[in-house]
């Protein structure tokens, strides 16, 4: 789907990640934005916090004014996103590369945010809306812990876990102020503002600050990932569809956040619980990959009793499914080529670059097992096609639609379907009105006769 236009106004009522229901006044927010209202203590977020705290902008379900500083960071960052989504504040476009074909594009990610679930109170998804586990030690790559004083017995200490606590906007102010400097200086006050309660067994803010300041890039990136998971809703994710290859690229919303990882890349596997684990070995080059695919295919074809299905290893830009995900493989039925007029054999195509990307992003990705599973999966499509029906294809399309509705929301999905039907009906009538006019005239004449 192409990016849709942003909402014309702030929603009058939204449900926040905490479950709190609040009211927003679009006119009051735009009036405050026009007047340049800002919260001078809020650092990098002074404009957003100034508008949210302006008179009449933010109220509770009981119609009483809410001080945005009293809200959790998760709630505040959702509200910030709504301001950019509605155009109350302009979000400077970011420059990106398509995650599949690497075509460059620019986007203001908050404009692409799906706010339907927030507006309709559909924040019940077990994954997207799950509360963060603040009482859990989360895995990170090892960070050296310095000694707190010279009197401390010297011994090598390393932290491999991180524990966070929930923060309000007021508690995060030292971090917000520090984040606007050219280089982030990690002090005990910043550690407290981040909500870092423990680094391994260490709970002293001064020691934690010194350890984080000296942490290697991989470890710091892991800390940033966990901070984002703790203080930003998983729904604050924009989806951009590439104009060239139709792949989806997920972009975090809003564009400006407190902490930036050392490398501009997708969220590390640590966010999924891998804890920075490294794999052994390297991804095979194209020749070795093709040899492995053909060796595996010979066995799977034989076990499946399949013949006369071509196998092609594609090193170009991978094709994508209807949801915009690059495919590991695809099946194309045989038939008459429309251009050449010759019979084409059925084909299984394996996409080298998708395997390469999965190997890079997921330390647990088993290349050989995935090759076998992909070939077997595509041959299943072939056998279903020969039988005249492909329930596997139906299941895949249903899954894509379910994932779309998870992000968009049930009610918003119904609204869009209704708008789409109305647009198609209007377009149909616009193109066929002469026929209907003639038919009505003929009917009238017939009745008169």
What would your notes on this structure say?
By secondary structure, the protein is α+β, with helices and mostly antiparallel strands. The protein contains 13 helices and 15 strands. Strands 1-2-3 form a 3-stranded antiparallel β-sheet. Strand 1 (13-15) and strand 2 form a beta hairpin. Helix 9 crosses helix 11 (367-387). It is flat and about 75 Å long. The model is unreliable at 1-6 and 263-276 (pLDDT under 50).
Quick rundown:
Among the domains are: 13-120, no CATH class; 286-407, 2-Layer Sandwich (Zincin-like); 410-449. 41% of the residues lie in helices and 14% in strands.
Note the overall shape. flat
Rg on CA atoms, Å: 27 Å
What is the H/E order? EEHHEHEEHEEHHEHHEEHEEEEEHHHH
Proportion of β residues?
5-15%
Widest β-sheet, arrangement of strands: 1-2-3
Per CATH, what is the topology of the domain at 286-407?
Zincin-like
Write out key terms for the chains shown:
about 450 residues; alpha+beta; three-stranded antiparallel beta sheet; 13 helices; about 40% helix; about 15% strand
Please specify the SSE layout and strand pairing.
Layout: E1 13-15, E2 21-24, H1 26-34, H2 46-52, E3 58-60, H3 73-85, E4 94-97, E5 104-107, H4 116-120, E6 138-144, E7 158-164, H5 169-178, H6 188-194, E8 196-199, H7 205-213, H8 217-231, E9 237-241, E10 248-252, H9 286-304, E11 310-314, E12 329-332, E13 335-336, E14 343-344, E15 347-351, H10 352-361, H11 367-387, H12 391-408, H13 410-448
Helix pairs in contact: 1-2, 5-6, 6-7, 9-11
